[in-house]
Amino acid sequence: MPFTLQAFSEEDRNMWFEALDGKETVFLNLNKANTQKEGSAQLDKIGFTILRKCISAIEKRGINDQGLYRVVGVSSKVQRLLNLLMDAKTCDEVDLEGNTEWEVKTITSTVKQYLRSLPEPLMTYELHGEFITPAKSGSPVSRVKVIHSLVHKLPEKNKEMLDIVVKHLANVSDHAKKNLMTVANLGVVFGPTLMRPQEETVAGLMDLKFQNIVVEILIENHEKEAESS
Questions:
Q1: Domain named Rho-GAP: which ranges (predicted)?
Q2: For residues 110 and 95, what is the distance between their CA atoms, to the nearest angstrom?
C-alpha cells in the first residue's frame, strides 16, 4: 500500500530518509521556502556537461551497485557536488571517475537533483496531461505509439536530454540482475523526476503511478525511439 509523506523542512525530509533506510521515495514539500530556487539549473551547455559527466562515472564505477538511484547520497555532499559542477570555473576540474571522494550514491543523487532543479520538468508542464492520458488506457502498442509521438513534440533540448537520460536508464536496467534496478523500479524513481504537474493537487498525487508507467514505456522502448528519430 503506497503512503504519501509530507516533509515540512529539509531536516524533516532527511529523517524520513533515515527511517526508510535511505530508500528513494516521493516527497511533497509544503514549505516552499526550504526548496531550491527553481531555475537554478538550465538546459544549457553546462547542464549537458553535468549530465554526461555524471552518467559516464556512474556507468564506469557503479552500474552493478545494488539499489542504484534508490540509495540516496548525503544532501550536503550532493549540493556541494552540484554547485561545483554548475560553476563553469570548477566543472572541468571535478574528477568523478577517478576520485573516490565522490561516492556513486552522491553522483546519482546529483543527477536527480539537477533534473529536479530545472525551471520545469524535462517532459514539460504543457505536455504533462497528454503524456498521462495514454498511460491510463489503451493497448500497450497504442500507448507506445502515442507517447513516442509526444516525445517529438518536446523542445529540441528537452528531447535531446531526455534521450541521454533514457538511454542511460535502459543501460542500468540491463544490469538489473546485479543492481536490482528493474524498469519498474527506475520508473518509480524517475517518474516524478522527469514529470510533474504545474500545480500540486490530490489529483496530481493520484497520477504518480501513471508518470512511472510513462517512464517505464520510454525505457523499455528506447531502441525503437532511437530508430525512429
A1: 41-226
A2: 14
Domains and CATH numbers, the chain: 40-116 (1.10.555.10), 120-228 (1.10.555.10)
Measured CA to CA, the distance from residue 52 to residue 63 in angstroms comes to 15
In whole angstroms, give the CA distance from residue 180 to residue 106. 18
The Cα–Cα gap between 46 and 41 comes to 9
Q: How far is CA 164 from CA 70, 80, 175, in A?
A: 19, 24, 17
Q: Is the pTM of this model over 0.90?
A: no
In angstroms, the CA 116 to CA 36 distance is: 9
In whole angstroms, what is the distance from residue 23 CA to residue 43 CA? 28
Give burial (CB, 10 Å; 0-12/13-18/19+) of 88: exposed
Burial string for 95-107 (b: 16+ CB within 10 Å, else e) reads ebeeeeebbbbbb
Q: Which helix (H) or strand (E) holds 194?
A: helix 183-194
pLDDT at residue 4 above 90?
A: no
Q: Provide the residue type at 190 as one letter.
A: F
